[in-house]
Amino acid sequence: MEQMLELSDEDAVTPELLDSQVQKAQEQLLQLRRQQEQIEKQKRELEELSRRQEELERGRAEMTDKLTRSLVVLEREAYETQNKLEQLRATRESFGQHLEILEGIDPKGWNPSDLHRELSRALSTVDDARAEFSQQRSRLQAIATQDSEDVSLPEAAPEVAGTRGERSFGQWVLIGFALSLPLMTLGLVGLVIFWWMKG
After folding, report:
1. DSSP assigned state of 165
2. I need a labelling partner for 168 at 20 to 30 A (CA). Which of 23, 70, 175, 186 fits?
3. Where do the structural domains in the chain lie, given as residue ranges?
4. Which of 24-28, 54-58, 87-91, 183-187 has the lowest mean pLDDT?
5. Contact (Cβ atoms closer than 8 angstroms) between residue 168 and residue 161
6. DSSP state of 104
7. CA-CA-CA-CA torsion sign (64, 70, 72, 74)
8. Pick the residue with more confidence: 54 or 112?
């Protein structure tokens, strides 16, 4: 611009020189536009890069927190599961030993003269098995209650529970259904005969 002003002050300005100056100014303007486009493109790239970096940091923080908390939960679950597995193995081994001892009782092989002593020993063995069964069953039920699972072992003395009439709701429903089934069948047959005669 200074060069153009200087030229305008001189009297010897020719049209060719003005055309040359205009051409030069247009080229400079075009170059400036290209630079502006390049700068805007770099700005968009930097903004996109910044957005992706923020997304990375946010996602990394989120997943680090989730994975850390999940690992703590899984470690606790693995520890509890290992304890339960050891309890189940010990219970299975204990039950197996008691079963083997009970199956080894053979009243036919007892000496009649030692019948009283043999019978007392066998009853004591049965009582020991019953006590161990009840104890292990209570432990397993406590574990199942913590996990909301059902380890359904039979009761130690089911015949006693049966005499008291302690049954679950599902058992009563089945009993009621079984008792009312003949009446329902008879009523259904009567309805069919009634409709057949009416028709």
Report:
1. T
2. 186
3. 1-81, 105-166, 169-199
4. 183-187
5. no
6. T
7. negative
8. 54
Q: Which 3 state secondary structure label does DSSP give 30?
A: helix
Pick from 25, 23, 44: which is nearest to 33 by CA?
A: 25
Using DSSP, state whether 73 is helix, strand or coil: helix
Tokens in use for 188? 């259904």
CA–CA distance from 74 to each of 67, 193, 194 (Å)? 10, 65, 66
| Residues in CB range of 134: below 8 A, 6 or more apart | 156
Q: Both tokens of residue 128? A: 């020991």
Query: Measured between alpha carbons, how far is 173 from 166 in angstroms, rounded to an integer?
Result: 14
Closest residue by Cα to residue 100 from 76, 69, 129, 123: 129
pTM of the model: 0.45
